[in-house]
Write a structure and sequence with these properties.
With 309 residues, the protein is of the alpha/beta class. The protein is built from 9 helices and 10 strands. It has one domain: Histone deacetylase domain (Arginase, Chain A). Helix 8 links the parallel strand 9 and strand 10. It is globular and about 50 Å long. The termini are close together. This is Acetoin utilization deacetylase AcuC. One of its GO terms (molecular function) is histone deacetylase activity. Pfam families: Hist_deacetyl. Belongs to the histone deacetylase family.
Length: 309
């Protein structure tokens, strides 16, 4: 058994305007930090349209396809842009998350890290936002449920921003538990504790600015881990955003790199106990390049250790 790294050069072709935080160098730094690690290296495929249609209506998928420019840039909202390479990159992101599910559920890999961009956890059913075009992790969750016939899937999102898109895409799905820890208040303004969804399958864990490691770890030990154990998922998916790091320019949660090691190790403990170690992690945010690379490497080091590579 081993850890799969799923990525594709197309994800370097998504090029927002100069100075945009979601820059090409993010993925370059992550991949450079992983280059010497013992990983099963897998090409992220283009997502099948049927797999996107599990979470987005056809009209939305067609709108995003039509918006893709042949040259120059197109602005979709205040934060979200498309360049000529963005559509392929977004298709690789969703396809990579689904490929991770296939690898882990088939036993070809013990766990997986999907290193793609743009991120996905802010994309709602019919709204691109927060740098995101498609709901990568949500699509992977629905694929695991519908294609592989799993009974329950849990998504854990420790990005510093609330995963409003994943919540929107999964809240009507009683077989999926969505958990988000995030700085609050902070953009996008969602993620209050009373947002529990029609099936009580949404768990939002807001954390105050500058609350740091102790509050983060306590929230997981006291609230998140018991809920995951009670849900008993057949697979754990992770939205791995590293922008809660103290050096990140977009937020103030002040976590340390060691906190990402800790949360990864604890989620692997739960995966071992609940679902045979089956865990797929997908890169979301992280905008200080040094902190992103260091934190991603720490995260993957735990996956490798737990995957037996």
């Amino acid at each position: 058994m081993t850890t799969a790294l799923i990525t594709h050069p197309d994800c370097l072709g998504h090029e927002p305007p100069e100075g945009h935080p979601e820059q090409v160098a993010r993925l370059e730094r992550v991949l450079a930090a992983l280059v010497e690690k013992d990983l099963l290296r897998v090409t992220a495929p283009l997502v099948a349209e049927d797999d996107l249609l599990r979470v987005h209506p056809k009209s939305y998928v067609e709108t995003i396809r039509a918006a893709a420019p042949a040259d120059g840039l197109v602005q979709l909202d205040a934060d979200t842009w498309m360049s000529p390479g963005s559509l392929a990159a977004a298709h690789r992101g969703a396809g990579g998350a689904i490929r991770g599910v296939d690898l882990v559920l088939s036993g070809e890999a013990h766990n997986a890290f999907v290193a793609t961009r743009p991120p996905g956890h802010h994309a709602e059913r019919e709204t691109p936002m927060g740098f995101c075009l498609f709901g990568n992790v949500a699509a992977a969750a629905k694929y695991a449920l519908d294609h592989h016939g799993l009974g329950r899937v849990a998504v854990v999102d420790f990005d510093v921003h609330h995963g409003n898109g994943t919540q929107d895409l999964l809240e009507d799905e009683p077989r999926a538990l969505f958990v988000s820890s995030h700085q609050y208040p902070l953009w996008p303004g969602t993620g209050a504790p009373d947002e529990t969804g029609p099936h009580d399958t949404i768990l939002n864990v807001p954390l105050a600015p500058r609350s740091g490691s102790t509050a983060f770890r306590r929230a997981y030990e006291d609230t998140v881990f018991p809920r995951l154990r009670a849900f008993k998922p057949d697979l754990i998916l992770v939205s791995a955003g590293f922008d809660a790091h103290r050096d990140d320019p977009l937020a103030e949660l002040t976590l340390e790199t060691d906190d990402f090691t800790w949360i990864t190790d604890r989620l692997c403990d739960l995966a071992d106990d609940l679902c045979g170690g089956r865990l797929v992690s997908c890169l979301e945010g992280g905008y200080n390049l040094y902190a992103l690379a260091e934190s991603s490497a720490a995260h993957v080091d735990v996956l490798i250790k737990r995957g037996g590579a």
